[in-house]
Amino acid sequence: KQWYQRRVRGLREKMSLTQLTQTLVHLVHISVSECSVWAVDKRGLVWYRSGTHAGSDGRVVQAWVQVDGNGLLFKQVQVGKGHMVWALDTKGTVFVRVGVTPQLPVGENWEAVPGTLCKQL
Fold first, then answer.
1. CB–CB of 64/49 below 8 Å?
2. According to DSSP H, which parts of the chain are helical?
3. What global pTM score does this model have?
4. What is the pLDDT along the chain (121 residues), one digit of tens a residue?
5. Gyration radius of the chain over CA positions
């Protein structure tokens, strides 16, 4: 499949998966918003795509960064408007990513949403 990410000027560009394929990471779910790209691999690990926007110098340094899950295994991740990131673990528990900001786009940690169980986000 071809995955595309949105650029600041509204242009779309093919997103490289080279880093992941060289390390044998196989993505099973991907979510794209105007602010970020997040994914889950077949092992249940969450990945964040850095370099979706140019920095102040106009350069874009692209890389996939594994996001610490504190031992949790996920099957789905969804990004929404602003900096909202939701995830569903393999047990059906819904989590929200806490502390996601433009300055810290990967956030701080996953927090379970009490009383929620589902099969799909």
1. yes
2. 18-22
3. 0.76
4. 445 454 445 555 555 556 565 566 788 998 988 778 899 999 999 999 876 555 555 555 677 888 998 899 999 999 988 789 999 999 999 999 999 988 888 999 999 999 988 999 8
5. 14
Please tell me the total number of residues recorded for the chain in this structure: 121
The span from the CA of 21 to the CA of 6, in Å, is: 22
Among all chains, which residue has been given the structure tokens 């610490």? 68
> In angstroms, rounded to a whole number, what is the distance separating the alpha carbons of residues 38 and 64?
9
Residue whose entry in the numeric block shows the structure tokens 């390390």: 23
> Which residue is associated with the tokens 């102040």?
56
Q: Is 22 helix (H, G, I), strand (E, B) or coil?
A: helix
